[in-house]
Amino acid sequence: MYTALYRTQRPEVFDEILGQEHIVKILRNQIQTGSVSHAYLFCGTRGTGKTTTARILAKAVNCLEEGERPCGKCSHCQAIKDGNFMDVIEIDAASNNGVENIRELRESVKYPPAVGNKKVYIIDEVHMLSTGAFNALLKTLEEPPEHVMFILATTEPQKLPPTILSRCMRLDFRRVSQKVIAENMKAICRMRGVEVTEDAARLLANCADGSVRDGLSILDQVLAGGDKVVDRDKVLEYVGTTGEDFFIELTELVSLKKSAEALLLLNDVLLEGKDVKQIMKDWVSHYRGLLITKFVKDAGDMLNMSAENLKRLEEQSKQVSLEEIDFAVTRLSKTINEARWSTNPRVLLELAIVAIAAGSEREEVVYRRAETPKATVNVQELPAAKTFVTGPEKTKTEVEEIHISANNEALWHSIFEEAEDSAGSFNLIRSGTQLFEVGNDSFTVIANSSFTQRYVEQKKRQLEDLMQARMGKRMKLVCKLKEDAAITIEKKQSTEDLAKEAEKLLGINIEIE
Ligand SMILES: Nc1ncnc2c1ncn2[C@@H]1O[C@H](COP(=O)(O)OP(=O)(O)OP(=O)(O)O)[C@@H](O)[C@H]1O
Ligand SMILES: [Mg+2]
Ligand SMILES: [Zn+2]
Fold first, then answer.
1. CA-20 nearest atom, ligand 1
2. Global pTM?
3. Which CATH number fits domain 406-490: 3.30.300.180, 3.40.630.10, 3.30.1540.10, 3.40.50.150?
4. Ligand 1 pocket check: which of 15, 51, 53 to mutate, most ligand atoms within 8 Å of Cβ?
5. How does pLDDT run across 436-479, given as a tens digit for each residue?
6. Is the dihedral of CA 83, 12, 174, 333 positive or negative?
7. Is the CB of 18 under 6 A from ligand 1?
């Protein structure tokens, strides 16, 4: 049976961990001096080595060897590797997030290790624990027995209560550099007798976007083709990144203030099934490329790019001003950030396109914004949409299903675990509402009926309290009625409405043909 690369390539000792030198240094030193902490929090992007390092640390405190620990070879190290060492307990908080799970854990913590030196509890995806479970865990973290070590791992430390954060030694895993990932990929290919070109390795590493695991998964797909030589084109066949052509064209269009054409171009690539969020990120990279080529001669090494594309980039960089680049990067970064929480990232990118195209008039834009607050934009007041001729207008009755992300669903569900026994009306709210969006300082709840909406309003304070306990900061609750919310969503999705709103907002004239 074939085993995925990211499983066969899991580092077993500190030396094999890529790109986290700052963390390895600390842990090694603590092992050598016998000063390990009783609780660690490993944070950082997915696939950067959190679980792997947690297991290595668990080996290190239980290794039988005298010298460099973990040795990776002794019976304890081997048993931990194979996952059958009694004193290393891995818990996936995503599926064991209740109070009972943590109570069980607290019971077992009392007993000394069966064979090893320390009992190590690795709690993965720890941000998924319910509030009750966090509280139960807190008690154990406050006064842990001498023979116990906790390693909590999460991609979302901002979701942990401050009380947990303050009791752990926090280590932040970084995205691994493109260069390190590329070198690793070349080494793996060499071992398999596959020749990989420099260009191909760089492109692969670029797609990995700092995650070693993602990189290995892509490499896996490419190697599955069975080719003995892997070049850039081969990689492109698999990853099918939206080509440089697209970004050159898109940038040119917004630079010429042709927002309508830019929106249509975006529409075309989205129809091909490209990912909106990826496009946002790649577009920022393109602007970065323009910036670099403006200042650096022969930037080929700095940018992951073929000589031919580099030339085109240099051409374009002469036409795009520094100011434009500055505005576009700032605007897109904001968009990427907002898109993380949005169920409809497309409209955010469309808005960004329109705004970037209007960029040079931005003083005026800011001024008009202040004058016309978003909330007062009323569709009826806008001029007739004579120039908009893309597809039929949607009517208000065609209400679309509201899409609730699994993450929000889980989060909303966990909120009520704490509140369960507090009052009957919570049950009503629980069954009659959905968590739609979590923003920076507010969260939006959708009520199925005006009846439930009223209950939500009544319990607003308490709901905000529960959310605060879960997210670690105070946020305002916004409750919308399902029908109204669906209409706004549907509105946002239509390009015409978007254009109209943008017109009003930005004080420019948008034509969609
Ligand atoms: N820093 C790294 N050095 C070497 N290999 C790594 C590194 N990070 C990840 N990998 C590879 O990716 C695989 C998965 O890594 P790991 O499970 O440690 O990631 P993680 O940070 O826990 O990810 P997640 O957030 O998804 O749980 C490993 O088996 C290994 O092949
Ligand atoms: Mg993990
Ligand atoms: Zn060992």
1. 1
2. 0.58
3. 3.30.300.180
4. 51
5. 888 888 999 998 877 778 888 888 888 898 888 878 888 999 99
6. negative
7. yes
